[in-house]
Amino acid sequence: MVEKVSAAKAGKLTAVKGMNDILPPESARWEWLEALVREQMARFSYLNVRTPIVENTALFVRSIGEVTDIVEKEMYSFEDRLNGEQLTLRPENTASVVRAVTEHSMLYDGPRRLWYMGPMFRHERPQRGRYRQFHQIGAEALGFAGPDVDAELILLAASLWKAMGLTDVRLELNSLGQPTERAAHRAQLVAYLEQHADQLDEDARRRLHSNPLRILDTKNPAMLSLVERAPRLMDFLGTSSLAHFEGLKAILDANGVAYTINPRLVRGLDYYNLTVFEFVTDRLGSQGTVCAGGRYDDLIAQIGGKPAPAVGWALGVERVLELLREQGATVPPPVPDAYAVVPDASAMPVALKTLQQLRDRGVRVQMHAATADGLGSMKSQFKKADASGARHALVFGADELAQGAVTLKALRDGAGEQTRQSLADVATWAADLQSRA
Ligand code: ATP
Ligand code: MG
Q: Exposed (0-12), middle (13-18) or buried (19+): which is 15, by Cβ within 10 Å?
């Protein structure tokens, strides 16, 4: 291993391109979002799952589909040096959840509502809203067949936007029908595209026979009018697929959830059927999809489980946070309630003991610790106390300690006001420190 490190061009070691450090104060925004997501998931009765970041490559090839951007060019795959297994850093998490649900027979005693959050890996060209390590939060409902749970998932996403104060997203919906309906559509779509072969770009020509539906999803402006006039999958749906779609729309309408139907919405993964949807924004350039999902009734069987319907979505955390930033949303950084000023090291044993008693009572306290230059002057310690954002300073001076007390000094409201508090009964004044906004 030592050899490898020195081989890393003997220069400064930096993070891998497209993979970001998430540092304070930015990390506070992540924690805020995560807490809010946990609360909403609980309100909708979705339970958390955590699957490994590394899976067998075959899992993704089989589930996402061979002729997709992810499998063709975006996966971080490698051979395990020790046993030769073909492994991949997960590019998404639905396949892993389905694998875990199947492996542990989780649908044995009924359907499940699950959610996850974590890093995903795709080798893409890094740009705003597109990274090589990025984070998704996802929700999956497994074992439910009707449009009611499709609607529930969309309402869950909408509740997240509301809780975050995220506006500027709109919902686009489509139905991909069932495989037989898609096959009938596909034949006509291919015929249509062949008639206009001269207008197809390289990607489209390559996909014409392997995955023609994906051509509808093109981002090439030169092909837009061609795909807009293409045969519509919606026109090939039978009564039962249409009823599913109508059922979903009725629930969304009753809940005042606005949507537009986008016949070109086909999603980049092969495993979807019936409902597909995306929440999109115009404020993030071409990385405008913040959340995407749909039904995948055949996937569980496809990876070897007992057939069961399922539906889910995943949102991109970086894009959601970026959109919130665009909207000017601010998240208050976490600040301590109190900062301990300790003029002399001899006071440390008593000071740290008091801080522990305060923390046991829920107070957030930052201790002033020595650097290589020592503890520093009172003045510099008060500067630090101020900069920490704390509302109070606790001064562990020799005079105070001689009387078994500490000075409590207000740094914000009523700044300068000070009282002496007894170290013997921390409980009586701990609560006064906690008046957080
Ligand atoms: P796109 O069309 O933008 O490449 P996708 O269809 O590949 O998106 P999904 O696989 O559906 O994306 O993933 C769900 C969500 O995860 C996306 O809507 C997006 O918000 C986010 N996401 C996907 N890829 C990236 C990435 N490379 N960097 C940051 N976020 C991403
Ligand atoms: Mg993509």
A: exposed
Are residue 273 and residue 422 in the same domain, yes or no? no
Question: CA 64 → CA 36, 68, 393, distances in Å?
Answer: 30, 7, 56
Domain shared by 356 and 400, yes or no:
yes
Two tokens, residue 242 = 């249409």
Among the listed residues 355, 292, 339, 356, the one whose alpha carbon sits nearest the alpha carbon of residue 320? 292
Domain span at 408: 338-435
Q: Compute the mean pLDDT over every residue in the chain, rounded to the nearest whole number.
A: 94
Number of neighbours of residue 227 by Cβ within 10 angstroms: 20
Contact 74, 125 (CB under 8 A): no
Say whether both 306 and 346 belong to one domain. no
**Which range, of 212-221, 277-286, 357-366, 401-410, averages the lowest pLDDT?**
212-221
Q: Which ligand is nearest to the CA of 294?
A: 1
Question: Number of helices and strands (H, E) in the chain?
Answer: 16, 16
Confidence band, pLDDT 50/70/90 cuts, at residue 436: low
Residues contacting ligand 1 via CB (< 6 Å): 92, 122, 124, 129-131, 134, 136, 268, 287, 289-292, 314-316, 318-319
Domain-ending residue, one of 306, 326, 346: 326
What ligand 1 atom has the least distance to the C-alpha of 70? 7
Q: What is the pLDDT of residues 58-96, one digit of tens each?
A: 999 999 988 888 999 999 999 999 999 999 999 999 999
d(CA 341, CA 367): 7
